[in-house]
Amino acid sequence: MSKIIIGFTGPIASGKDASKKYLEEKYQGKSFRFSTVMRELLTRLSLEINRKNLSDISRCLRETFGEDLFAKTMAKDVMADPAEMIIVDGIRRLADIAYLKDVSGFHLISIEADIKIRYERLTKRGENADDGKKTFEGFLADHQLETELSIPAVMAEADFQINNDGDFDNLYRQIDEIISTIKKSAN
Predict the structure, then answer these.
(1) Distance CA 60, CA 34 (A)
(2) Neighbour-count burial for 140-150, b at 16+ CB within 10 Å, e otherwise
(3) Alpha-carbon span 152 to 105, nearest angstrom
(4) CB–CB of 112/155 below 8 Å?
(5) How many helices (H) and strands (E) does the chain have?
(6) pLDDT over 90 for what percent of the chain?
(7) Total domain count for the chain?
(8) What is the pLDDT of residues 82-93, one digit of tens each?
(9) Domain range spanning residue 80?
(10) 15-19, 91-95, 134-138, 174-178: range with lowest mean pLDDT
(11) Which of 18, 40, 106, 178 satisfies CB 3.0 to 4.6 Å to 5 for a cystine?
């Protein structure tokens, strides 16, 4: 069987991480995340990991070293990894998929959920330092950060769409259907 590479895109707290974890557990997928480098840099620099700092460091690195800096690195890492299923999380820009879409077995999945559901999920999960105390107005403002503005254009390029307004079982069922479709088309 050929390698399956799943890329996830979608707005803040739409369910990308939950989908990634499901693929890791059920299909033994290996995951890569676009924000890993930025998170490591912020940690190393003793700076708080929050959306603004992640956005700022991403912008600075891309402005200095090119918009496709992370895309080239991600495509290289994905192609070099021997895992049969690879998950790429946090695709935010068209430049992020510029190299990945040319990798055999790559499929982009967009995940959407109602904005109020996403806000509730964000404040409960506390992934970033400022998530737990974020107001709804602050959550809406986060959608205007440079890192978030191009997500709708990337979602429009998706091969598959998931509506994640429901529970985990509904999300997992949709993922399983997509994986089944991909496997059937690979044969």
Answers:
(1) 15
(2) eebeebebbeb
(3) 23
(4) yes
(5) 10, 5
(6) 56
(7) 1
(8) 999 999 988 988
(9) 4-186
(10) 134-138
(11) 106
pLDDT digits (tens, 9 = 90+) for 72-129: 888 888 889 999 999 998 898 898 888 888 888 999 999 999 999 999 888 887 666 6
For the chain, the straight-line distance linking the first and the last C-alpha, in angstroms and rounded, comes to 8
Residue 177 token pair: 């259907």
Residue type, 110: S
CA dihedral of residues 170, 139, 37, 159 (deg, nearest 10): 40
Query: What is the rounded distance in angstroms from the CA atom of residue 19 to the CA atom of residue 14?
Result: 10
- Edge-to-edge, what's the strand order for the sheet holding 106-112? 30-33, 85-89, 4-9, 106-112, 160-163
The span from the CA of 180 to the CA of 147, in Å, is 32
φ, ψ of residue 88 to 5 degrees: the values are -115, 115
CB 23 within 8 A of CB 87: yes
Summarize the confidence of residues 131-157 as an average pLDDT: 84
The Cα 56–Cα 39 span in angstroms is 12
Question: Which pairs from 127-134 meet CB under 8 Å and 24+ separation?
Answer: 127/17, 128/49, 128/50, 128/51, 128/54, 129/48, 129/49, 129/50, 130/48, 130/50, 130/51
